[in-house]
Amino acid sequence: MYDITILIVEDDKILANEFKEYLNKYGYQVNLIENFSKVLNECMNICPDLILMDINLPFYDGFYWCSKIREYSQVPMIFISSRNSDNDKIMAIAQGGDDYVEKPFNLPVLRAKIEAITRRTYQYKVNQKIYIKDNIFYDYSNNCIYFKNEKVDLTKSENIIIKVLLEEKDKVVSRNALMDELWNTDEFISDNTLTVLISRLRLKLKDVIGDELICTKKGQGYYIE
User: Fold this and answer.
1) Domain range spanning residue 42?
2) Which of 59, 147, 171, 184 is deepest in the core (most CB within 10 A)?
């Protein structure tokens, strides 16, 4: 499993810790800059996979540090700033930034931008796991679901069900579609068998997670939010 490491260059400690706490929930390894006069040095030591860069910083601004980092690395960088002029956005891109997010912003929006950039840049690294909810993810490398540090082992059929539902996350998957996928494993799956499989899988997940993971759309099928 590969973890994305994010370096946050933000001098507002309350805000930086808020970002860190939120992103940690989704499996990101987050580092905060300690010495704002040595941002480049810390960046070289940490070797992050993505940087969140504020513009207004002590000593030198974010544009300066972006240009310095770009002298040796093309690590993806998202500018996060309360400055909203077009000139600032143009400068951010010109210095080598990949995106620009204005404060205040919605944290899920920031996470979506992070996921989009890391997916494009590190597809071969991030495709081994997918986060379902806070502290819950599916690991494709060993076909298991993890809740915090606890692993939920799945049978072959349960894995197929979970994978299909995750591929269509937030969308309803019909019972027939699930049965078709299960049929491809050369197992005989009847309508009643599917009901039993879903029921057992729900119980197994609820025993560990303590909550329902698989939802039912009456008369239509199942989905994972």
Assistant:
1) 5-126
2) 147
Query: What CA–CA distance (Å, rounded) separates 195 from 191?
Result: 6
| Peptide bond preceding 104 in cis form (omega within 30 of 0) | yes
Which run of H or E residues covers position 131? strand 129-133
Buried b (16+ CB within 10 A) or exposed e, 23-37: beebbbebbbbeebe
Extract the tokens encoding 41: 């040095």
Distance (Å, whole) CA 177 – CA 173? 6
From the list 213, 51, 25, the residue with the least C-alpha distance to 108 is: 25
Supply the pTM of this predicted model: 0.56
What are the tens digits of pLDDT across the range 139-179?
776 778 888 778 888 888 888 899 888 888 888 999 888 88
Kindly report the CA angle at 141 between 138 and 146, in degrees rounded to 5? Answer: 30
